[in-house]
Amino acid sequence: MKYLTFALAKGRLAKKSLALFEQIGISMDEMKDPDTRKLIFVNEDLKIKMFLAKASDVPTYVEYGAADIGVVGKDTLLEEGRRLYEVLDLGFGKCRMCVCGPKSAAEYLQHQELIRVASKYPNIAKDYFYNKKHQTVEIIKLHGSVELAPIVGLSEVIVDIVETGTTLKENGLEVLEEICPLSARVVVNQVSMKMENERIMKLIRDIKTVI
Ligand SMILES: Nc1ncnc2c1ncn2[C@@H]1O[C@H](COP(=O)(O)OP(=O)(O)OP(=O)(O)O)[C@@H](O)[C@H]1O
Ligand SMILES: O=P(O)(O)OC[C@H]1O[C@H](OP(=O)(O)OP(=O)(O)O)[C@H](O)[C@@H]1O
After folding, report:
1. Do 169 and 134 share a structural domain?
2. What is the ipTM metric for this complex?
3. pLDDT by residue (tens digit) across 14-43?
4. Which DSSP symbol is given to 153?
5. N or C, where is the chain less crowded by C-beta within 10 Å?
6. Residues spanned by the domain of 133
7. Which residues form the ATP phosphoribosyltransferase catalytic domain (predicted)?
8. Do 146 and 120 form a contact (C-beta atoms < 8 A)?
């Protein structure tokens, strides 16, 4: 039997993703060791390999077939735009992609002005402003702490993830427009879906029983 390989996003989603697989009998005990520098883990009995990767790399591993299955946030899927099958919404890692800024920036959005938009998600921002709102904007790519941008005058607004809203509130910003809801998703390589259909469909059924 061929190994099925799983790529899980590191960080916020990792713990819940591992717990989910454990619930359906797929446990990778070595993976829980916080000191390990090992990158890939094997369950010989189940013929499963599993690795944690930077979230934005998960869709790449799955599209190329280096992983058969991936678990990653919808934000990453939208941003990376890879060819793969999105088969399940896991219902955790829930948050929203939003246009945020100081209250005073709301009128720039209403009057379709040429504004600067800072984001870790330039493709999502571009798609929203250009294709959905038909508003020409300048998009500035950042790698983190995006809320700083309107505070220090780098941009008028940001496109970023909002979960509790605490980061916005503590920095005098607010949600101006909601782009879409987000959560963790299971994705499958398109060839694996055909070649390993029975095993993958069983896996999806098993996950559905616990979510
Ligand atoms: N409050 C939140 N902030 C950011 N991401 C969240 C939040 N809540 C849920 N998520 C989900 O968790 C994923 C982000 O995980 P994590 O925070 O580890 O990444 P990150 O900080 O964006 O990573 P990196 O340091 O690689 O940029 C997102 O892709 C999203 O789907
Ligand atoms: O609505 P909240 O519950 O406050 O969560 C949202 C914040 O969390 C994320 O940042 P993260 O902690 O990942 O740091 P980063 O901005 O450096 O990516 C996100 O980019 C927001 O800044």
Report:
1. yes
2. 0.96
3. 999 999 999 999 998 888 888 989 999 999
4. T
5. N
6. 95-181
7. 54-208
8. yes
Residues 32, 36, 37, 41, Cα dihedral to 10°: -50
Residues 60 and 118 in one domain: no
Nearest CA, atom 17, ligand 1: 12
What single-letter amino acid sits at 37?
Answer: R
- Tokens coding 124: 């999502």
Place of tokens 């793969």: 84
For the sheet with 116-119, list strands across it: 138-141, 116-119, 157-162, 95-101, 174-182
Specify the residue with its C-alpha closest to ligand 1, atom 2.
163
Note the pTM of the prediction, 2 decimals.
0.96
Closest residue by Cα to residue 146 from 175, 167, 170, 124: 167
Pocket of ligand 2 contains residue 148 by CB under 6 Å:
no
Going from the Cα of 45 to the center of ligand 1, the distance in angstroms, rounded, reads 32
Amino acid (one-letter) located at 68: D
